[in-house]
Amino acid sequence: MTIPRPEHPRPDLERPDWLNLNGEWQFAFDDDDAGLASWWQVGHDLPLRINVPFAYQTPLSGINTRDFHHVIWYRRTFEVPAGWFGRRVRLNFGAVDYSCAVYVNGKLAGTHSGGHTPFALDITRLLSLDNRNEVVLRVYDDERLCQPRGKQHWHHASAGCHYTRTSGIWQTVWLEPLAATAIEHLHIRSWDLGGHVQVDVLLDKPDTTVRVRAEALCDGTVVAVAEGGVMSDRAEATAGRCVPLHLQIPSPRVWSVEHPHLYGLKLTVLRGTDPLETVHSYFGIRSLSTYGGAVMLNGHRLYQRLVLDQGYWPDGLLTAATDDELKADIVRMKDMGFNGCRKHQKLEDPRFLYWADKLGYLVWGEMANTFEYSDEAVCAFAAEWEAAVLRDRNHPCVVAWTPINESWGVNAGVIHERPEQIAFLNALYCLTHALDPSRPVNGNCGWQNPQTDLATVHDYTQQPAELKRHIETYVANPALNVANAPAMAQHLPGSPYRGQPILVTEYGGIGLLSGQNAWGYGNVAQNTDELLARYDALTGALQQVPECMGFCYTQLSDVEQEQNGLYTYDRKPKLDPAKVRAINERRR
Q1: What is the dihedral angle through the alpha carbons of 113, 114, 117, 118, rounded to the nearest 10 degrees?
Q2: What pLDDT was estimated at residue 231?
Q3: How would residue 413 be classed by pLDDT, with cut points 50, 70 and 90?
Q4: How far apart are CA 34 and CA 56, in angstroms?
Q5: What average pLDDT does range 492-499 have in this prediction?
Q6: Domains in the chain, please, with CATH?
Q7: What is the pTM of this model?
């Protein structure tokens, strides 16, 4: 049987040896929650078969039912490759929605909560001496609004802008061998156009007896080398685990949309002269800042031509069927003249960010929101957003962070009366900058801006002249309410407009419909000619406002009943890409 999604899931943190555990797993629904009491966690055959990494709600999973099942189980056997003996073994999960317990050979290996972020478990002590091993997962997922769930609907049927749920494993599962002391995490700061690159290597345990060598490669040739050990005498050394390395790249070649140059990065852990392990990564050199009402990329004003990208597919929902499909969505949009996307309400597969780095495509990183404000929601969201930023902050393609969309997860109607909710939004802004001070943070996309580095407006007005007037009114007096939410101020108390770059980050959404319950914003287009003409007029209205530094059109493709994409759900173009490109590139 061919293994689905066979490519390495993390090109930014790749060990040469690894074992993909995708493919057929045993599977069961446990609606009575009887599995633990019946000892399903060890040696228990499960009745169904599922194709990992696809959720049971998808056709590609082989199950394809969209009924509610709060408790589900997975099981498969595996053998550790012979060449790994003597090394530790780590079990990795790209994403499991929502909370799970992992058992290896009947023993609890660990637990995790958060449906979009990765986790890893050292399972060495749990492996069988005869190398006949099993891994079992018990997963819990329900409809609570305190979960960061994004576009996953909490009702049985999809409706409006909410879609079918994803439960359980939905990204790659893999094993990899670790040295006695191994690399846990990288923080690469390559935002200096002079070629100064800082690489902080976090080891998985304190060890003052090892050193780490970093080699930067340009087109396969080593151009810079740095080597160092743990800085245990410094407070920021993370308890003797952090190895700070500094690379100076000669004649640096910068990363841009037009020329997305990437440098290879090889990291070797050494004890004396003996190499313990090697990890491969990469980086791009580029600068990013805001100045004079504009976003500056490599010192030049950046006009962002973005598309709203939900990251859904008809056969896999949140999971693309192949790596080629992730790449193809970027190529489709670049062919239409877009230079980036706002990944909407989803922490996307790391392979997508890899292709965006490779192809030169800007990405706004966004988190799946909750739909209530409570202690549980605040804690769950903050923890998962922290993990999301740490996972993706090394990617040169990521040019903005958007933790919250349209006040989702806070009470938009009375937020100005709830100081704790405003504090939550401002805390997310500060937390994001604490983890990554190098990128602008879009504090609350669309309206009710808290502390923010970008002033973003959502406006689905379908009349071009009215759309233009709305944005010009906002530019003239940012204290006024504009766009589609006249009851909601564009800026929250204590966070007035202070000259941030202005972008319209949702507009359009013009429907070209088929089937029951389908919808788009405003009056639907009757044919493709009308769709193109209206896209031209609305986009042109925004391009005519000098202070507007970019737009984000809704959306890349149809998703289930929301049929307002430039492509159908199965990625067939509704419009000639060359004609859309000509419209988009009128203003650079």
Answers
A1: 20
A2: 82
A3: confident
A4: 20
A5: 92
A6: 19-178 (2.60.120.260), 192-283 (2.60.40.10), 298-347+393-556+563-584 (3.20.20.80)
A7: 0.97
